[in-house]
Amino acid sequence: MVIANRFWSQIFGVAFSNKRWLHFFMLFVPVTGLWMSALGVVGLALNLRAFDFVSQEIRAAEDPEFETFYTKNILLNEGIRAWMAAQDQPHENLIFPEEVLPRENAL
């Protein structure tokens, strides 16, 4: 108890008079850090920009060169489909050797 109180008082300059405040603070700090990091991950996943509050859809409508995650996905999928269509599909050209094929009265 004394070591934890000394630890928090050295870091934040706060000394706690009772255990309840100390335990609340010891829970509050890591939980708040976890929530803030989770919000940061969500912000990165959704491509949110803190310095740019203009919606990406509005900006993409005004500027055709502006690339969003949505347009990247569409272009990537179209490129993959075009590449797959041009490729020879190996399963269509399989030739089995005669010894693998069943004979007339195999069943």
TrEMBL record:
<keyword id="KW-0597">Phosphoprotein</keyword>
<protein>
    <recommendedName>
        <fullName>Photosystem II D2 protein</fullName>
    </recommendedName>
</protein>
<comment type="similarity">
    <text>Belongs to the reaction center PufL/M/PsbA/D family.</text>
</comment>
<keyword id="KW-0157">Chromophore</keyword>
<keyword id="KW-0813">Transport</keyword>
<dbReference type="GO" id="GO:0016491">
    <property type="term" value="F:oxidoreductase activity"/>
</dbReference>
<dbReference type="InterPro" id="IPR055266">
    <property type="entry name" value="D1/D2"/>
</dbReference>
<keyword id="KW-0460">Magnesium</keyword>
<dbReference type="GO" id="GO:0046872">
    <property type="term" value="F:metal ion binding"/>
</dbReference>
<feature type="transmembrane region" description="Helical">
    <location>
        <begin position="21"/>
        <end position="46"/>
    </location>
</feature>
<keyword id="KW-0007">Acetylation</keyword>
<dbReference type="GO" id="GO:0016168">
    <property type="term" value="F:chlorophyll binding"/>
</dbReference>
<keyword id="KW-0934">Plastid</keyword>
<dbReference type="GO" id="GO:0009772">
    <property type="term" value="P:photosynthetic electron transport in photosystem II"/>
</dbReference>
<keyword id="KW-1133">Transmembrane helix</keyword>
<dbReference type="Pfam" id="PF00124">
    <property type="entry name" value="Photo_RC"/>
</dbReference>
<keyword id="KW-0560">Oxidoreductase</keyword>
<keyword id="KW-0602">Photosynthesis</keyword>
<dbReference type="GO" id="GO:0009523">
    <property type="term" value="C:photosystem II"/>
</dbReference>
<dbReference type="InterPro" id="IPR036854">
    <property type="entry name" value="Photo_II_D1/D2_sf"/>
</dbReference>
<keyword id="KW-0604">Photosystem II</keyword>
<keyword id="KW-0472">Membrane</keyword>
<keyword id="KW-0408">Iron</keyword>
<keyword id="KW-0812">Transmembrane</keyword>
<dbReference type="InterPro" id="IPR000484">
    <property type="entry name" value="Photo_RC_L/M"/>
</dbReference>
<keyword id="KW-0479">Metal-binding</keyword>
<keyword id="KW-0249">Electron transport</keyword>
<keyword id="KW-0793">Thylakoid</keyword>
<keyword id="KW-0148">Chlorophyll</keyword>
<dbReference type="GO" id="GO:0009535">
    <property type="term" value="C:chloroplast thylakoid membrane"/>
</dbReference>
